[in-house]
């Protein structure tokens, strides 16, 4: 294995700046790794070798002239295949968009291109980001590099597996109910769901618009923070984009310490009913934080018990609306009925039957039900009220602490074929700790906090809306304290892969 | 499961029709079971959401955003039609929408 692929993004950036290696060398090393391991991991739907090397060559040439380049210029990145890329196939892991090559560009890809990051490809996901395992993809499943018999989580499972498998140092996911944080937890990586509206959603294929958020991912907190800084900022093309200036997330992660920081353990998410190893790792991480000077307090967020229920009404309702655009008329798949009249209506029905997978259909039908006359107030209307209660609970909790913490997921990565993996409610319960942040629009981050039965455990940090910097001020020093205490998840991962 | 949250295959068929998704009998039956399970689990939202709680539809306050009414770049006809399932003469070809009569 080339040593270039085990370096962090910021180490690569420093090496590129110092002229120790070129972006072409870095990019080629990662492409080689992808081609050597893709049969095992299945992280990518599309690998864009030529495009990546073209960017790398251009960055090297620009740097050689002494011109100013972005701090991350030349560092490779992968994009979840929910991010629209002009001229490059964008599928959302669905048969519906199998052959779609977008005629326009997303703001996320525009920013990545402008900064000169070679894009290695488009990563696998659950179809239209619906799922928690990356098994619901029309283009095959992704496997967890820690143990190929286990799922990588989802829906940004490909993005997370590509990081954990050392195929790429940075990747971009999306998080609607935990789709960045949960796969980060399952793969021992760092996943961030920023404050809603802080990264443009223009050109991100919509699932549930009031919950979706682009999420930077890396193998350590500072790397994710650097990608977050690159992607954040106001975008006039997104009406929900916040006008706030971008804070110094990397600086916050690297220079702060835990002394005097108040970490609020959410009473309802402290680990009762969770897998023993997950609870133990979480408790041990709290002890490390306390030893490093943090104050641990318990906070009560009673409405969080209802957040999951509200989410599973609001999300499918928005799904049923957003996915109405896939009608077989203007782009994407078109199918004709096997028998009977060929009309716009029968073509739509045949197209959507053939183009959508089971989980997508289930959510569309559920959303259609929740929005139906007669059920709207009881389900969708009530769920929106729960959203108010969750926001109020968080606001009250943040009066007594800087950040809130919990295990990211109740379990470590599920095994393929596990009973829970085929039970929709059991899978939905896996999102219990991550969903409240999406309902309230607050930022959340998952970082590795050790192993349980040989698989990574995630530690979640939540901060008040628009105060993402507070999350990094705890995540950075906590990561350092955990590593100093011997909880070096990344080392275990790198050693395991090196000896494969 | 409460009586109100038990979904029948006939109800799923109606929802599928509203959603424009063709479904076979097995799929309708399977989805009816899934939906009944999910709805019985999420029905608790009624327990705490009283009349005194205002609804929140979005994490940030939304207001209508209008761009200046000036001519700008947009997709060309060629770009817009590039991914169309069928097109001709600079137009999308769609199946018959109106009836014969």
Automatic annotation (TrEMBL), chain A:
GO cellular component terms, semicolon-separated: glutamyl-tRNA(Gln) amidotransferase complex
Coiled coil feature spans: none
Signal peptide start-end: none
Active site residues per record: 80 (charge relay system), 155 (charge relay system), 179 (acyl-ester intermediate)
Alphabetical list of Pfam families matching this protein: Amidase (PF01425)
Catalyzed reactions: L-glutamyl-tRNA(Gln) + L-glutamine + ATP + H2O = L-glutaminyl-tRNA(Gln) + L-glutamate + ADP + phosphate + H(+)
Keywords: ATP-binding, Ligase, Nucleotide-binding, Protein biosynthesis
Enzyme class: ligase
Keyword Cell wall biogenesis/degradation: no
Assigned EC number: 6.3.5.7
Domain Amidase: 25-469
Keyword match Isomerase: no
UniProt GO MF annotations: ATP binding; glutaminyl-tRNA synthase (glutamine-hydrolyzing) activity
A single BP term in Gene Ontology: translation
Function: Allows the formation of correctly charged Gln-tRNA(Gln) through the transamidation of misacylated Glu-tRNA(Gln) in organisms which lack glutaminyl-tRNA synthetase. The reaction takes place in the presence of glutamine and ATP through an activated gamma-phospho-Glu-tRNA(Gln).
Family: Belongs to the amidase family. GatA subfamily.
NCBIfam families reported for this sequence: gatA
PANTHER family: GLUTAMYL-TRNA(GLN) AMIDOTRANSFERASE SUBUNIT A (PTHR11895:SF151), TRANSAMIDASE (PTHR11895)
Subunit structure: Heterotrimer of A, B and C subunits.
Name by which UniProt lists this protein: Glutamyl-tRNA(Gln) amidotransferase subunit A
Organism: Brevibacterium koreense
Automatic annotation (TrEMBL), chain B:
GO annotation (BP), single: translation
Catalyzed reactions: L-aspartyl-tRNA(Asn) + L-glutamine + ATP + H2O = L-asparaginyl-tRNA(Asn) + L-glutamate + ADP + phosphate + 2 H(+); L-glutamyl-tRNA(Gln) + L-glutamine + ATP + H2O = L-glutaminyl-tRNA(Gln) + L-glutamate + ADP + phosphate + H(+)
Gene this protein is translated from: gatC
Function: Allows the formation of correctly charged Asn-tRNA(Asn) or Gln-tRNA(Gln) through the transamidation of misacylated Asp-tRNA(Asn) or Glu-tRNA(Gln) in organisms which lack either or both of asparaginyl-tRNA or glutaminyl-tRNA synthetases. The reaction takes place in the presence of glutamine and ATP through an activated phospho-Asp-tRNA(Asn) or phospho-Glu-tRNA(Gln).
Gene3D superfamilies documented for this protein: Glu-tRNAGln amidotransferase C subunit, N-terminal domain (1.10.20.60)
EC number annotated for this UniProt entry: 6.3.5.-
Enzymatic class: ligase
An example Gene Ontology molecular-function term: ATP binding
InterPro entries per the UniProt record, alphabetical: Asp/Glu-ADT_sf_sub_c (IPR036113), GatC (IPR003837)
Entry protein name: Aspartyl/glutamyl-tRNA(Asn/Gln) amidotransferase subunit C
Family statement drawn from the similarity comment of this UniProt entry: Belongs to the GatC family.
Assembly information from the UniProt record: Heterotrimer of A, B and C subunits.
Pfam families, A to Z: GatC
Protein keywords: ATP-binding, Ligase, Nucleotide-binding, Protein biosynthesis
């Amino acid at each position: 294995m080339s040593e270039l692929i085990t370096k962090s993004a910021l180490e690569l950036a420093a090496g590129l700046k110092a002229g120790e290696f070129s972006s072409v060398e870095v990019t080629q090393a990662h492409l080689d790794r992808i081609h050597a391991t893709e049969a095992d991991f299945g992280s990518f739907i599309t690998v864009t070798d030529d495009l990546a090397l073209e960017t790398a060559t251009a960055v090297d040439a620009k740097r050689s002239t002494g011109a100013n380049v972005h701090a991350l210029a030349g560092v490779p990145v992968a994009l979840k295949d929910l991010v629209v890329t002009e001229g490059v196939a964008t599928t959302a892991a669905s048969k519906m968009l199998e052959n779609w090559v977008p005629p326009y560009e997303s703001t996320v890809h525009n920013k990545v291109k402008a900064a000169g990051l070679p894009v290695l490809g488009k990563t696998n996901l659950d179809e239209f980001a619906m799922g928690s395992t990356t098994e619901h993809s029309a283009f095959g499943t992704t496997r967890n590099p820690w143990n190929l018999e286990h799922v990588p989580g989802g829906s940004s499972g490909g993005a997370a597996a590509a990081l954990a498998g050392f195929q790429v140092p940075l990747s971009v996911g999306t998080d609607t109910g935990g789709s960045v944080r949960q796969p980060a937890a399952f793969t021992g990586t760092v996943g961030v769901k920023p404050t809603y509206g802080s990264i443009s959603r223009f050109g991100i294929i919509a699932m549930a618009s009031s919950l979706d958020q682009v999420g930077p991912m890396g193998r350590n907190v500072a790397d994710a923070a650097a990608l977050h800084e690159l992607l954040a900022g106001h975008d006039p093309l997104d009406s929900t984009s916040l006008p706030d200036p971008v804070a110094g997330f990397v600086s916050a992660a690297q220079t702060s310490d835990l002394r005097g920081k108040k970490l609020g353990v959410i009473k309802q998410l402290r680990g009762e009913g969770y897998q023993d190893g997950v609870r133990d790792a979480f408790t041990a991480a709290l002890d490390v934080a306390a030893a490093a000077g943090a104050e641990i307090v318990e906070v009560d967020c009673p409405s969080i018990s209802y957040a999951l229920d509200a989410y599973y009404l609001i999300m499918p309702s928005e799904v049923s609306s957003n996915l109405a655009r896939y009608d077989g008329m203007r782009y994407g798949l078109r199918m004709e009925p096997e028998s009977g009249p060929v009309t716009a209506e029968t073509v739509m029905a045949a197209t959507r039957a053939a183009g959508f997978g089971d989980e997508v259909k289930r959510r569309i039908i559920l959303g259609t039900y929740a929005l139906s006359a007669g059920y709207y107030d009881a389900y969708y209307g009530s769920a929106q009220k729960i959203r108010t209660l969750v926001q109020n609970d968080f606001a009250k909790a943040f009066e007594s602490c800087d950040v809130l913490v919990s295990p990211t997921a109740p379990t470590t990565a599920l095994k393929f074929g596990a009973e829970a993996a085929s039970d929709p409610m059991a899978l939905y319960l896996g999102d219990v700790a991550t969903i409240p942040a999406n309902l309230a629009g607050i930022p959340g981050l998952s970082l590795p906090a050790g192993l349980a039965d040989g698989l990574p455990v995630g530690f979640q940090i939540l901060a008040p809306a628009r105060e993402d910097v507070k999350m990094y001020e705890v995540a950075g020093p906590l990561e350092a304290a955990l590593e100093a205490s011997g909880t070096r998840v990344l080392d275990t991962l790198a050693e395991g892969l090196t000896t494969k | 499961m409460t009586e109100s949250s038990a979904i029948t295959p006939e109800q799923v068929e109606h929802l599928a029709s509203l959603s424009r998704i063709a479904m076979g009998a097995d799929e309708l039956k399977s989805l009816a079971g899934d939906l009944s399970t999910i709805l019985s689990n999420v029905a608790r939202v009624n327990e705490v959401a009283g009349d005194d709680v205002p609804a929140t539809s979005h994490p940030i306050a939304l207001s209508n955003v209008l761009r200046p009414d000036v001519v700008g770049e947009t997709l060309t006809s060629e770009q817009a039609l590039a991914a169309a399932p069928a097109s001709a003469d600079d137009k999308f070809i769609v199946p018959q929408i109106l009836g014969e009569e």
